[in-house]
Amino acid sequence: xxxxxxxxxxxxxxxxxxxxxxxxxxxxxxxxxxxxxxxxxxxxxxxxxxxxxxxxxxxxxxxxxxxxxxxxxxxxxxxxxxxxxxxxxxxxxxxxxxxxxxxxxxxxxxxxxxxxxxxxxxxxxxxxxxxxxxxxxxxxxxxxxxxxxxxxxxxxxxxxxxxxxxxxxxxxxxxxxxxxxxxxxxxxxxxxxxxxxxxxxxxxxxxxxxxxxxxxxxxxxxxxxxxxxxxxxxxxxxxxxxxxxxxxxxxx
Length: 252
Ligand SMILES: Cc1cc2nc3c(=O)[nH]c(=O)nc-3n(C[C@H](O)[C@H](O)[C@H](O)COP(=O)(O)OP(=O)(O)OC[C@H]3O[C@@H](n4cnc5c(N)ncnc54)[C@H](O)[C@@H]3O)c2cc1C
Fold this sequence. Notes:
Layout: E1 10-16, E2 19-24, E3 27-31, E4 34-36, E5 52-65, E6 73-76, E7 82-87, E8 95-106, H1 115-127, E9 134-145, E10 151-154, E11 162-166, H2 172-188, H3 208-220, H4 224-227
The structure holds flavin-adenine dinucleotide.
Flavin-adenine dinucleotide is lined by residues 9-10, 37-39, 42, 57, 59, 101, 140, 142, 165, 168, 170-174, 176.
């Protein structure tokens, strides 16, 4: 029987004969195949996470007078880098929104990132004199894989009917489209010329040095799992802050 399960959190995916059993907050679903497209796959505990790293990027939306800039898609590839977009609002309104992002950092490696919004704003004001008030600020996570293409296809070390779409970097629009095409073909047993290039099980050859560096960097931030947490108890966590407190012994 077909049923819709929108707005439902999947908690666990497990083999059930030739099916996959998806345990959700609203009950169990038995399916012939699962495609995990959750930005980074929540079902995969190891393989994919050794091949990509999560970075947080920061964005502001600044009001500018209408027609003061052409509709652009632009990057500053310096270090740090910035990306720029223009949101054209309703023609009846007197302003558009200049969207500028950047100042990325590895997830979990900056406890006080608020200054990053100010740095983006300063960068904007130095280059765009028409910039007015900052209307929006937000941040999101981007999955940076170590060797180039995204991971679109069968989940490594899993059953053949479990697929992932991840490792988009900043090209989610392209990769999600490609991912839909590749996974559809895999499901239907149709040949697809891109399958091997985007295979999540591919060996990391190009970018091997970056791979080792990323993993060493990522693992170092979890040292408190074996060393006893960042703070001794919850009472040591300041207002508006977060920290890892070890509850019990050993690895989670
Ligand atoms: C600031 C910023 C700017 C970007 N700019 C660009 C750009 O200009 N061009 C571009 O191509 N890409 C851009 N990207 C990247 C792009 O947005 C992402 O790669 C893309 O949105 C990823 O799509 P997705 O569907 O895989 O994941 P998401 O859009 O993250 O969607 C995943 C969905 O899965 C749901 N989910 C998660 N866990 C579960 C669970 N356990 N059960 C059920 N549902 C779950 C989430 O609620 C969410 O709805 C940008 C990203 C950021 C953060």
